[in-house]
């Protein structure tokens, strides 16, 4: 069976390396799928994008990426992201808590902006 060698790297660490049957990534030009024998390519990863890797052994790997590049040369795919994290590393309860705090902070700032606009209009 044909396979491709994949490296998923962020600026601060090696996230995953191994053999895979397919890689998909969201780029600034759209979503791309890489199979063994793919033509050489250099693509820019989409901000807040997703990369998926189907390893030859084990479960599919899903990573959130922030910027960076994807390179295909021969049967090697290198994904170099400015920042990346695996879906399996995300604590969903912590993420929901952070999102709730962000929403509260945003509401506070909106309220202050509306109050300032009303005060300016009253002058």
TrEMBL record:
It is found in: Cell membrane. The keyword Hydrolase applies. The keyword Hydrolase applies. The lineage of its organism: Bacteria, Bacillati, Actinomycetota, Actinomycetes, Mycobacteriales. Residues 5-83 form the ATP synthase F1 complex delta/epsilon subunit N-terminal domain. This is ATP synthase epsilon chain. It is a peripheral membrane protein. GO terms for molecular function: ATP binding; hydrolase activity; proton-transporting ATP synthase activity, rotational mechanism. CDD domains: F1-ATPase_delta. Pfam families: ATP-synt_DE_N. Keywords: ATP synthesis, Cell membrane, CF(1), Hydrogen ion transport, Hydrolase, Ion transport, Membrane, Transport. GO terms for cellular component: plasma membrane; proton-transporting ATP synthase complex. Belongs to the ATPase epsilon chain family. Residues 90-109 are annotated as: Disordered. Produces ATP from ADP in the presence of a proton gradient across the membrane. F-type ATPases have 2 components, CF(1) - the catalytic core - and CF(0) - the membrane proton channel. CF(1) has five subunits: alpha(3), beta(3), gamma(1), delta(1), epsilon(1). CF(0) has three main subunits: a, b and c.
């Amino acid at each position: 069976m044909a396979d491709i060698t994949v490296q998923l790297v962020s600026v601060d660490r090696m996230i995953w390396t191994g053999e895979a049957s397919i890689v998909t990534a969201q780029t600034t030009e759209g979503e791309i799928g890489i199979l063994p024998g793919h033509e050489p390519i250099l693509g820019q990863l989409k901000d807040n994008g997703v990369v998926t890797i189907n390893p030859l052994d084990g479960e599919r790997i899903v990573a959130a990426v922030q910027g960076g590049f994807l390179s295909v040369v021969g049967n090697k795919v290198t994904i170099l992201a400015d920042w990346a994290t695996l879906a399996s590393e995300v604590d969903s309860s912590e993420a929901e808590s952070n999102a709730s705090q962000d929403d509260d902070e945003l509401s506070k700032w909106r309220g202050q902006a509306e109050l300032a606009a009303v005060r300016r209009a009253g002058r």
